[in-house]
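Lab meeting, item 3. Inverse folding demo.
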């Protein structure tokens, strides 16, 4: 301990006096956190809470729907320390801002929480080590720390969303009870969420409400409008979200607020947000935090992670949990955190953001910068701004916090919050499966009609391919010599149109990402998603099949009978269903456009080779090519059915006397069956393959979501929590 206490004196800041000896600490009165308005030249010590007097105060107002922060003078407010300590109620909503509906929050307490994930780190499996803290209704609690410090793991542990390989020790209390968070009682916003760019903000939230909530339509419209008001999205409610198909839409700040508004539709008691300021500039970040502060004033409990923030944003936090390598270096009020760093010998320099100072002190990555800069010099002779041992700082801060009054105050508050059980959180109702299937089907149809890459471009490509193939094989006639060319035409049409389905990879990947996001919060399911996607794709695929088939059928000059034409269209339609199912199966495994396209091209090429055109099935090698590839390739059944539809029941004259059947004429070029029901058997096999591929997708999606989002039972005390950590 003596070694630890002697090391902080080596810290030198670029903002402190360069002439100060290394053994003397800079007085804390030279450092400040907040200033009284108008006194820009007078530094204020954060040791004393700044009293802003009774004359004026700066009020940050977020106008509903606005994208700017307006400053207004209001009557004097109480001191900041009282506000942060929650001894006073939240300030009233400023005039001119829309009043959001009150939300009943819930207290969250975690005690000695340890999370281990096997193989997560090389040096330790413990990503969270004996963390203790709490969050109260109507407040914002932030989990801060450098990269890989355990912020997201702690947030997921509190929300019950850890992966299946994680093990949790310790206790988590909700309103003083050891219980899990039921559906609808909380919302969780991922760091990167998928939005539907072809929908407006209001449409996106409305469809989300239809998926999540039971009840009547007017009730869902009401909660959507409340969510829009809460996240200050009024000016963007009727604008497209954008981001797909080269659509111009919302900026990153507005998109982030839309993702939060989606969770507010359920009116949760607790809202977990992973990096709300992710990829936001300083203005968007400040607007985001002011909006969340306004949301917290309605009573909701906010817990979120953050990597770094400006001074203005830092001043909006109520409590901070500071992590480094899974260790809790501090938990308490924001001003107390500044005092804690000062007591440990690391006061915040003048004109430096508190969060920047915290991360500079506890981020071990700075040690590499120190090693790089050993031989470099600045204007003062050396790079004094980076001359600091972060390992020593982390040990000092941790030891100081454990013996501080802040840690004792946290323990006392936790004891008070858990000594008496509060009301349990109730499970909210959920929309029925039939409702969710109908909503997903209609929403996907709307997306198809608006995204030209999803629908219109693919339709044009299929028409062009049918036109090219049809004109290439036009004028064949109906003689015996045209049989081989017709077989080639049908093979090219089926094979290349099936291969063209890879144009929909990007759209299907976006659908799967949206499904994953909705499934993680319980808004959807694999069966609901697949059935809704199938119902919405049927009109699209049928339009492609009938338009492409008509062009090809009449250009090539196939038999002019209506029943034969309808079978051709139906066969090609089911073939497209199988191809779409194969695409979904590959996209469910390979969540990357490049690898999905590469895999699909390879699979289609292998199926084309084993379809029986380049070499008939009886002449193929028995191992692998005949069994199982030729039976797995859906091209085989589609081409065979179309040839049987065209040639069974026909005869060709050979010379003046002799005739041969269509079956005999085709057999030398392609192996078909002589049965009159053969073409319907092939159609049945295609239909079963379309169903089988979607069953496979159902299994893949269920397995994928189940493994990545498996909930752990973290809301119980593990009997082994007392073992050595």
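The presenter then showed the designed sequence:
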């Amino acid at each position: 301990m003596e070694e630890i206490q002697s090391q902080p004196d080596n810290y030198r800041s670029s903002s402190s006096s360069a002439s100060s000896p290394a053994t003397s600490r800079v007085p804390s009165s030279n450092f400040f956190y907040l200033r009284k308005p108008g006194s820009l030249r007078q530094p204020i010590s954060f040791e004393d809470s700044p009293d802003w007097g009774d004359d004026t105060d700066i009020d940050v107002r977020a106008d509903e729907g606005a994208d700017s922060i307006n400053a207004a003078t209001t009557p004097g407010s109480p001191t900041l320390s009282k506000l942060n300590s929650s001894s006073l109620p939240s300030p009233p909503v400023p005039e001119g801002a829309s009043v959001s509906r009150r939300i009943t929050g819930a207290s969250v307490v975690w005690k000695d929480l340890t999370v281990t994930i096997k193989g997560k780190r090389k040096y330790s499996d413990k990503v969270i080590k004996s963390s203790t803290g709490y969050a109260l209704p109507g407040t914002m609690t932030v989990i801060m720390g450098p990269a890989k410090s355990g912020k997201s793991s702690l947030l997921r542990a509190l929300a019950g969303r850890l992966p299946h390989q994680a093990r949790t020790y310790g206790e988590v209390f909700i309103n003083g009870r050891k219980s899990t968070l039921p559906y609808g009682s909380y919302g969780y916003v991922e760091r990167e969420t998928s939005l539907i760019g072809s929908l407006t903000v209001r449409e996106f939230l409305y469809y989300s409400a239809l998926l999540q909530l039971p009840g009547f339509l007017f009730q869902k419209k009401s909660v959507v409008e409340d969510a829009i008001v809460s996240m200050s999205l009024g000016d963007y409610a009727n604008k497209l979200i954008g981001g797909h198909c080269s659509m111009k839409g919302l900026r990153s700040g507005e998109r982030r607020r839309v993702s939060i508004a989606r969770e507010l539709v359920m009116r949760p008691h607790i809202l977990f947000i992973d990096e709300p300021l992710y990829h936001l500039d300083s203005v968007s970040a400040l607007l985001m935090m002011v909006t969340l502060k306004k949301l917290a004033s309605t009573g909701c409990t906010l817990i979120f992670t953050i990597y770094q923030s400006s001074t203005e944003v830092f001043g909006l936090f109520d409590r901070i949990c500071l992590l480094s390598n899974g260790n809790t270096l501090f938990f308490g009020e924001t001003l107390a955190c500044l005092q804690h760093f000062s007591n440990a010998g690391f006061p915040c320099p003048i004109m430096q953001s508190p969060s920047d100072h915290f991360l500079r002190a506890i981020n071990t990555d700075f040690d590499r910068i120190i090693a790089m800069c050993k031989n470099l010099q600045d204007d003062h002779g050396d790079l004094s701004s980076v001359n600091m041992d972060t390992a020593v700082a982390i040990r000092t801060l941790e030891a100081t916090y454990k013996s501080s009054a802040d840690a004792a105050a946290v323990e006392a508050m936790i004891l008070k919050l858990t000594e008496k059980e509060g009301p349990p959180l109730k499970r909210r109702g959920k929309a029925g499966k039939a409702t969710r299937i109908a909503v997903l089907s209609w929403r996907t149809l709307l997306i198809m009609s608006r995204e030209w890459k999803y629908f219109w471009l693919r339709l044009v490509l299929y028409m062009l391919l049918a036109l090219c193939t049809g004109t290439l094989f036009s004028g064949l006639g109906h003689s015996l010599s045209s049989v081989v060319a017709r077989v080639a035409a049908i093979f090219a049409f089926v094979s290349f149109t099936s291969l063209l389905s890879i144009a929909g990879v990007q759209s299907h990947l976006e659908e799967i990402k949206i499904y994953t996001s909705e499934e993680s919060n319980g808004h959807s399911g694999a069966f609901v998603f697949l059935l809704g996607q199938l119902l919405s794709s049927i009109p699209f695929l049928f339009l492609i099949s009938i338009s492409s088939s008509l062009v090809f059928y009449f250009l090539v000059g196939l038999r002019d009978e209506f029943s034969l034409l309808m079978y051709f269209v139906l066969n090609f339609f089911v073939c497209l269903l199988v191809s779409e199912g194969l695409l979904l199966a590959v996209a469910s495994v390979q969540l990357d456009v490049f690898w999905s396209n590469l895999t699909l091209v390879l699979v289609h090429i292998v199926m084309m080779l084993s379809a029986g055109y380049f070499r008939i099935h009886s002449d193929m090698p028995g191992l692998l090519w005949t069994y199982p590839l030729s039976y797995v390739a859906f091209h085989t059944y589609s081409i065979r059915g179309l040839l049987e539809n065209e040639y069974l029941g026909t005869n060709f004259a050979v010379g003046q006397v002799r005739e041969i059947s269509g079956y005999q004429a085709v057999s030398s070029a392609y192996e078909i069956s002589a049965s009159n029901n053969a073409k319907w058997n092939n159609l049945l096999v295609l239909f079963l393959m379309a169903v089988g591929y979607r069953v496979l997708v159902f299994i893949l999606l269920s397995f994928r979501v189940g493994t990545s989002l498996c909930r752990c039972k973290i809301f119980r005390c593990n009997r082994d929590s007392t073992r050595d950590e």
